[in-house]
Write a structure and sequence with these properties.
Nuclear Transport Factor 2, Chain: A, 11 helices, elongated
C-alpha cells in the first residue's frame, strides 16, 4: 500500500473557506487514494463504494502539528477535537490587509487618517520624525499612500513615494512608535538617439517632441549648445533636420527625465552644424565642434527668444514717432512683454537706468573692444547695476515698451570700438579650442556618434534606444 500524505494545515484552510467544498474534496481525495491501493487492477465498483463508506481503521494521528497525516487517517482527523480546535483558531486570527489612498485635491493628512479610523496619535507619532514631517506636509493630488493594517485593524506600516526617485516607509516598532526610513530607487539609464525633420511652420519644440524627445527642457539645452551659430526661432527651413544623442533615465520602467546630452546636430539648408560633449582632463566637460573647436562663441546670435525682427539695422530708416529719416543703429526684436532679455556675452555693466527716449536700459562692456546696449526694457533685473559683472546668457531684464516705443520690443545695439555695427555681420568668434594633447582622444571618442549621425541623416524620424 502506498503512503499518501496530506498536510493538515491545508485541510483547515479549505474547511474554513467552504465547508461543503471540504467534504467533496475529502471524499475525492479518499477515493483517489483507495483506487491506488489496488496493484492488480481496478476493483469492482460495489467493492469500492463499500470501502468508501466503511468505517475507517482507528489509526493513531501523529502528535506533531507539522507532521503530515496519512490518507487513511483522514476520516479520523476530520472528526477529531484537534481539527475542530484548528478551525476555531483560524477563525480567531484574521489576516491583515493594505489600503491604498490616492490623494485628491483638498485632502488633508488628518482627514485621510480619520477616513481609515487611524488614531491621531499614530499620525503625530509618524510626523514626529523629520522624514515624517517633510513627507506628510507635502502630499499632493495623485500621490498614493499605502496603509498596512494587522488582523486587529491596527496600523502596522505606512509607505509612500515622495518623489519619482524616493520612497519612505514608517514601520511600527512599539506601542505608538513608528520608525521612518527613506529609500532611493535605482535609476536606469538608456542611451537614446532622436531624429526630427522640419516642415513648413514647424518649431524646434514641435519637431523635437515629434521625434520622441519627452522633456521640452532637453530641447532648450540642445538649442543653447548651438546658440552661437543657430537662431532656432528663425533659421530652420522645411527639410532641415535635427538630431540628438542623449541619456534617458527610468525608474522601474517609468520615464524619469532626460540626462546628459552627448551630441547634437542641425542641418540648415545643407550646412551641417554639430556639437559633441567631451570631458577633457583638467578642463571638465564642455562641447566642441567635430574638429575640436569650442562650440562656445564669444557672443550669442540673439539676446532673447523673439517673435520677429520688427526693424533691422538701417542707416536711413524713417522713425515712426519722430517722423524723420535718421539712422537706426540697432535691431528691434518684437516679443511679448515680460520675455527675458539676456546678455549676449560675458562683461561688465557700465550703465543701467532710465531716460525719456530709451526707457529702461542696460549697457555692457565686453572687454576693450565690444559693447552692447539693451533698450525699452519693462524691468531691469535686481543686481544689474553699474559695475556688476554679468555672464553670457544671464537675464538682464524683460521686454517692455518704455521710452519712445510703439509696442513691446527690445532695441539691441552692438558696437565695435565705439562704432555701431549690424550684429548679423559680426563673424563668429569662438572660445579656446582643444589643445593638441587632447585632440586625438577627442576625435577617437566622438567617432561612434559621428557614424550614428551620418547614417541617420537621410533616414526616417523618431527615437531609438542605442543602449539599455
Amino acid at each position: 500500500m502506498s503512503r499518501n500524505l496530506i498536510n493538515r494545515q491545508s485541510l483547515v484552510a479549505v474547511f474554513v473557506g467552504a465547508t461543503f467544498a471540504v467534504a467533496a474534496t475529502a471524499v475525492a481525495v479518499l477515493s483517489d487514494a483507495l483506487r491506488e491501493r489496488s496493484h492488480a487492477g481496478t476493483p469492482d465498483p460495489a467493492t469500492l463504494m463499500n470501502e468508501v463508506h466503511a468505517p475507517a481503521p482507528a489509526l493513531p494521528i501523529p502528535d506533531s502539528q507539522s507532521q503530515p497525516i496519512l490518507v487513511e487517517q483522514l476520516p479520523s482527523y476530520l472528526s477529531s477535537p484537534e481539527f475542530e480546535q484548528a478551525v476555531i483558531r483560524s477563525d480567531l486570527e484574521p489576516l491583515g490587509h493594505d489600503h491604498v489612498i490616492v490623494v485628491k485635491r483638498g485632502n488633508t493628512v488628518s482627514g485621510i487618517f480619520d477616513s481609515l479610523s487611524v488614531p491621531q496619535t499614530d499620525m503625530y507619532s509618524i510626523m514626529a520624525s523629520p522624514i515624517g514631517r517633510a513627507s506628510l506636509r507635502r502630499i499632493h493630488p495623485g500621490q498614493e499612500l499605502t496603509f498596512s493594517f494587522d488582523g486587529n485593524g491596527e496600523l502596522r506600516r505606512l509607505s509612500m513615494q515622495v518623489a519619482i526617485d524616493r520612497r519612505v516607509e514608517f514601520l511600527r516598532s512599539g506601542k505608538g512608535q513608528f520608525d521612518g526610513t527613506e529609500t532611493l530607487l535605482p535609476v536606469q539609464t538608456r542611451l537614446t538617439h532622436s531624429v526630427g525633420q522640419f516642415s513648413y511652420g514647424d518649431s524646434l519644440s514641435s519637431v523635437g517632441l515629434d521625434s520622441g524627445i519627452r522633456d521640452p527642457r532637453t530641447l532648450m539645452r540642445a538649442a543653447n549648445l548651438l546658440a552661437w551659430e543657430v537662431d532656432f526661432w528663425h533659421d530652420p527651413r522645411p527639410g532641415d533636420t535635427f538630431q540628438l544623442i542623449y541619456d534617458r533615465q527610468y525608474i522601474d520602467g517609468n520615464f524619469l527625465a532626460d540626462g546628459t546630452i552627448y551630441a547634437v546636430e542641425f542641418v540648415n539648408r545643407g550646412k551641417v552644424i554639430q556639437s559633441f560633449r567631451y570631458d577633457a582632463p583638467g578642463l571638465g566637460p564642455n562641447y566642441y565642434t567635430r574638429d575640436g573647436k569650442s562650440n562656445r562663441s564669444v557672443f550669442l546670435r540673439a539676446p532673447l527668444e523673439y517673435t520677429r525682427v520688427s526693424s533691422s539695422f538701417n542707416l536711413k530708416r524713417f522713425h515712426p514717432i519722430l517722423k524723420t529719416v535718421r539712422p537706426h543703429l540697432g535691431t528691434d526684436y518684437a516679443a511679448p512683454q515680460g520675455t527675458p532679455v539676456r546678455s549676449v556675452g560675458d562683461g561688465v555693466v557700465t550703465a543701467a537706468g532710465r531716460t525719456r527716449a530709451n526707457g529702461n536700459y542696460v549697457v555692457i562692456r565686453h572687454g576693450s573692444i565690444y559693447q552692447t546696449k539693451y533698450l525699452h526694457l519693462h524691468t531691469i533685473r535686481k543686481g544689474v547695476t553699474r559695475g556688476a559683472v554679468v555672464s553670457q546668457g544671464q537675464v538682464l531684464g524683460t521686454v517692455g515698451m518704455t521710452g519712445f516705443a510703439t509696442g513691446p520690443h527690445l532695441h539691441y545695439e552692438f558696437l565695435v570700438n565705439g562704432e555701431h555695427r549690424d550684429p548679423k555681420t559680426i563673424p563668429v568668434q569662438r572660445s579656446e579650442p582643444l589643445v593638441a594633447e587632447h585632440l586625438g582622444e577627442f576625435l577617437k571618442s566622438i567617432r561612434p556618434m559621428v557614424a550614428i549621425l551620418e547614417s541617420a541623416r537621410a533616414n526616417s524620424t523618431g527615437s531609438i534606444a542605442l543602449q539599455d
